[in-house]
Design goal:
The structure is a single chain. The chain is mainly α. It folds into three domains: 198 residues, Growth Hormone, Chain: A, CATH 1.20.1250.20; 55 residues; 243 residues, Growth Hormone, Chain: A. The chain contains 16 helices and no strands. 49% of the residues are buried.
Length: 502
């Protein structure tokens, strides 16, 4: 396979066509979060109903990842990418014209499935455009594009919703998608060899059932009271038996869904574990918590929240490029070590000090090291996994993205549960410290002056302050999972020493 000359006009256009598609797909996962509360009226539903707009997308994307490698081998990266962008664009238009909850959920399912295809094919094509010694830069460019999507998502979503309509959040994808399909069909190279391989439909079916049940369990657990609800218990059983039958199918089948021989390589195994725990369980918590902190604790608007997120998102993009170049020059391992150290400092020293009383500019400054650490993480870990995937690039990307979805769902569920738990704990602690007689007299005076509204204001103030103080422990819990994930990063040093000795 002949590699094109780097950074000519034609080569730059190829990069742009691929990165913009991935950017559009990732942007839609974050920009929609802003409009969810505004969908209740137009779609005639409640908050729990519109949450399915996000849940359905996430489930479809996770399921799509299970068959994307097989589709790529059959039709090639280019055409799966082009068709997926076209499907994503059509689904975006359908979301924009939706007038019912069921209609937009179906459209989001189609959109999420296409997003999985776009992300894997875009990353695989970009990786293939560059020679082996420059693939760190390739993943740095990819991370640069993808990192800006969640950074500007809240700002863009807030702006479009405030000045136009929530429908504009979906319609904005349509012209971009049309341009990508036309120019991508004409310019993107089709170099992949076609292979007629069998797909283990039984394994796909069992893992699909287990994945769907698990993601619904994690996204709806807090709403239904976790395992106090029969519905959640049933989902737990379905997840368990779906996973069990999947393992049995993989064990006895000649055509397994995953290539388990790759896990014999310690770099590959540790890379997947780092992606699963550090990115999924920890970093996803921060991505979920930071906008929530700005909006619900600091009381900022959607646009201001977006600027706060952009404050660390910029550094993800900048340091992704630096990390990619350093990975090519030296190795991904030392870059990951430095990133892990900065991440732990940010998690245990900076985040716990951020609360309601922290000025906005100070909060932005304290989240910047987090952005730097994330920038030092994406490109090196991707290069580490893909360079050790024995040439099976799509398999490595599929596995990384799948564990990212599952780990991220766990991380979001943990953060949601912790917010409730620590807020309640701080509320109980606050009440236990109050002098009953002084509090009673104060609340009575408020009631005499403002009526029942005075009592309600006092209750809301207590709940707000308990949530504010509880955030400290929520930050720390996310940091704990970062510590667990960082242990796998430091284990890479031991692998390297053993190889050097041998």
């Amino acid at each position: 396979m002949q590699t094109p000359k780097l950074f000519t006009l034609h080569f730059s256009l190829l990069i742009l066509l691929v990165v913009v598609g991935a950017f559009m797909a990732v942007l839609d996962t974050t920009v929609v979060d802003i409009i969810v509360p505004r969908l209740k009226g137009p779609l005639s539903t409640d908050m729990y109903g519109v949450q399915w707009v996000i849940t359905a997308y996430m489930i479809a994307a996770a399921v799509g990842l299970l068959i994307v490698e097989w589709l790529i081998k059959k039709f090639g990266n280019k055409w799966i990418y082009i068709i997926s962008v076209a499907v994503f664009t059509i689904a975006s238009f359908l979301c924009g014209i939706a007038n019912s909850l069921s209609f937009i959920i179906v459209a989001r399912v189609i959109q999420g499935f296409a997003e999985a295809m776009i992300m894997v094919t875009a990353q695989a094509m970009l990786f293939g455009f560059f020679p082996p010694e420059k693939r760190g830069i390739a993943m740095g460019i990819f991370a640069l594009g993808v990192a800006f999507a969640p950074a500007i998502g809240p700002t863009l979503g807030g702006y479009l919703t405030e000045w136009f309509s929530w429908r504009a959040v979906f319609f904005v994808n349509v012209p971009i998608g049309i341009v990508l399909v036309i120019f991508g069909s004409l310019l993107l190279p089709d170099r992949d060899e076609r292979k007629e391989e069998k797909l283990n439909f039984i394994s796909v079916a069992f893992l699909t059932v287990a994945t769907v049940a698990l993601l619904i369990l994690l996204s709806k657990g807090q709403q239904y009271g976790w395992f106090n609800s029969p519905f959640i218990v049933y989902l737990g059983f379905i997840t368990f038996f779906g996973t069990l039958f999947f393992i049995m199918s993989e064990y006895y089948s000649k055509e397994s869904l995953f290539d388990y021989t790759l896990f014999k390589n310690p770099y590959y195994s540790l890379g997947i574990l780092i992606y699963f725990v550090l990115l999924g369980f920890s970093m996803y918590q921060y991505f979920y918590l930071i906008p929530m902190f700005y909006e619900h604790i600091k009381g900022l608007s959607s646009i201001q929240t977006g600027l706060g997120v952009l404050g660390f998102g910029i550094w993800i993009g900048v340091f992704s490029m630096i990390a990619g170049a350093l990975s090519d020059k030296f190795s991904p391992v030392p870059v990951l070590i430095v990133g892990a150290i900065i991440y732990l400092i940010s998690s245990f020293l900076l985040f716990p000090s951020i609360n309601y009383y922290t000025p906005f500019w100070e909060a932005v400054l304290k989240t910047m090291p987090f952005g730097i650490a994330m920038g030092l993480f994406f490109a090196p870990i991707t290069v580490l996994v893909m360079n050790n995937s024995n040439g099976k690039i799509e398999q490595g990307i599929m596995t990384m993205d799948y564990v990212r979805f599952i780990g991220g769902s766990f991380g979001t569920a943990i953060a949601t549960n912790n917010l409730v738990f620590y807020s309640n704990k701080e509320f109980d602690g606050m009440v236990s410290l109050q002098n009953y007689h002084i509090t009673y007299d104060f609340v009575s005076a408020l009631e005499n002056f403002l009526g029942k509204a005075g009592v309600e204001i006092f209750r809301m103030l207590e709940e707000f302050m308990s949530a504010n103080y509880g955030f400290k422990y929520v930050w720390l819990d996310a940091g704990f999972w970062g510590l667990v994930g960082s242990l796998f990063v430091f284990m890479l040093l031991l692998v390297k020493r053993r190889k050097n000795v041998s």
